[in-house]
Amino acid sequence: RSTVVVSPATLAFAAVAKNKNDIVTVPSGYTVSVLYRAGDPIASGVAAFANDGTDTNYAQRAGDNHDGMSYFGLAASGNTPDASNNTRGLLAINHEYINPGYMHVGAPTTTTDANGVARRPEAEVLKEIEAHGVSVVEVARAGNTGAWSYVPNSALNRRVTPNTPVAFSGPVKGDAMLRTVYSKDGTTGRGTINNCANGALPWGDYATCEENWAGYFARASTDASVRTATGNAKQVTSLSRYGVGTNSRYGWQTVAATDPTSTIFSRWNASAVAANAADGTADFRNEPFTFGWVVEIDPYNPASTPRKRTALGRMAHEGVMAGRMVAGVKPAFYMGDDGRNEYIYKFVSATAWSTADATPTDRLATGDKYLDTGTLYVAKFNADGTGQWLPLVFGQNGLDANNTRYPFASQADVLANARLAGDALGATPMDRPEWTAVNPVNGEMYCTLTNNSNRRGVASSSSQRSIDAANPRSYVDTRTDGGTSTGNANGHVVRLREANDSTESTSFTWDVYAFGARSTADANNVNLSGLDDTNDFSSPDGLWFGLPTNAGGQASPLLFVQTDDGAYTDVTNCMMLIGMPGRVGDGTTRTVTSSFGGTATATARVGAAPGAKLKRFLVGPKECEITGITSTADGRSIFINVQHPGEDGDYANITSHWPQSQATGTGTGRPRAATVVITKNDGGVVGL
Ligand code: FEO
Ligand code: CA
Ligand code: CA
Ligand code: CA
After folding, report:
1. Tens digits of per-residue pLDDT, 30-64?
2. Domain membership of residue 445 as a residue range
3. What is the reported pLDDT for 8?
4. Do the domain assignments include residue 674?
5. Composition bias, kind Polar residues: at what positions (predicted)?
6. What is the pLDDT of residues 434-446, one digit of tens each?
7. Atom of ligand 1 nearest to the CA of 432
8. Any ligand 1 atom below 6 A from CB of 175
9. How many structural domains comprise the chain?
10. Does residue 343 lie within any of the structural domains?
11. CA-316 nearest atom, ligand 1
């Protein structure tokens, strides 16, 4: 590689102090602008958002709870891609879930029908469903240095909701487990849900990832079958392992639809036929297998059908991040499965990268080329700082019908039940793998491990895991308000370097870039990275690398770390930090002793102390999570999302007024999740 990268010595901003204000705070010299709020109209003729619970038609408005997000540059007019355009583009934005307490005029309604059955009203639930999914929205800047705004009536604007038709692609397409009332041949499905993190695919498409989809389904605990006869016992085990329970998150399956042929509500009841009161002919037991995938969307073509990429496995997908794309080398795509004691994965394409595919005429066909054939691997971290990628391939390493833990019937079965295959292979259970990010200069992969209340010194139940080298802490974090968080209370960021720095490798070395902690915590066993008041954090989640070039011609990879709730909310709202990364192995190994759930020791591999190379850049408003990060190519405009401000309140007890409060810190209205854009007042690169 010919790119010469020189890291500036310091991050050129003053760290933002921890605070609990109802404002997005950034360093002096920077400006925050609110760009795209929950409920904002994206088509002509849609009424302005009243924000009093009377609004409808979320299929033509911004959805709720913005999360992962990518910027796709556009040429000066039309829908031609131009990744280098820093003033006009499309933002593809996930709407992970909803805050029902602010969505309706009053509290969400449940009524009891004549048969004594609790029912949600159709109109409320339709709003809730349509507020999920993805936005694609045109954004433009007035001149090179003016204000950003979204274009409310752009022909390129689009919502993908849980009702949007999608196509399956890859090895599980057409498998019996995907056959539903909606698709008798198992080749199509409806929509996407709980879209958490994301990825910008190297050929110009957006990838959105289905995380906590399991919670949208209800399934009677007495159900002993799935819809297809094959592999019933294991598929039922799988539903439980993936978290499909007897009650759904919002009760959508309880709607008695006005149109009895509509299945958009009853589909969330994944029980046997008789339980589907709203449609006695339907059987939705397979619906949960149609979620848990990475979904590719062509952002430049609003009429295109999203494709679910089954070769990348089924899990609580957090995000998907491409490794370095090198001509002639098979690319890798790194993914976390966000559950306590779940795994980190990578997919290696069967097809070596061709640079001509960076600007293809048919992006989804290019996705077929790289994402439908290849090998999914799961990570095993060894105590000596090495690791292996274990292949999830039917017929290899015991992943077959004779497996004593779970029998596997086919490659489709392995992919759809990736968690079970990871168990069978002995993958390393991690402290909730969230986002993945790749250093564009050296290819090292970083993954946030947000926290784990089920980590112990010595595990004493099947849901717990004992500390190990890759997850070495279990302790009590005591809040200033008297509450406590336990286990790995504050999370950490693990990073790995592939053997030969190649995406194709099946072995790696690893260490921990930073351990989250209060700066005041025990330096020997908790605050292992020596965080201080300028960079202490808890519960890392959003993670992304940029590679901006400053005015002096210096290009530097910058690591953006965002936080989600977690243990530190007694002191500060959630935040975003910017770091200048080191390298795997640049630190030390230390023996760490647990102080919660039994006393044990682990060898922690601690990266070089971040010190002044990691600083707090932003603090969000009350009760929010900061998540989603993308940038224009020049690094001069960065976009981030504020998710669930005021999440502890509701319509009757409003606990944040953001973004209305952004100017003064106060307000009267209901809070709204929103995308904000951050620019430097001198027009320079953010962070440098
Ligand atoms: Fe949606 Fe794992 O955060
Ligand atoms: Ca997340
Ligand atoms: Ca999270
Ligand atoms: Ca959250």
Report:
1. 999 999 999 999 999 999 999 999 999 999 999 99
2. 30-97+132-211+292-680
3. 63
4. yes
5. 455-466
6. 999 999 999 999 9
7. 2
8. no
9. 1
10. yes
11. 2
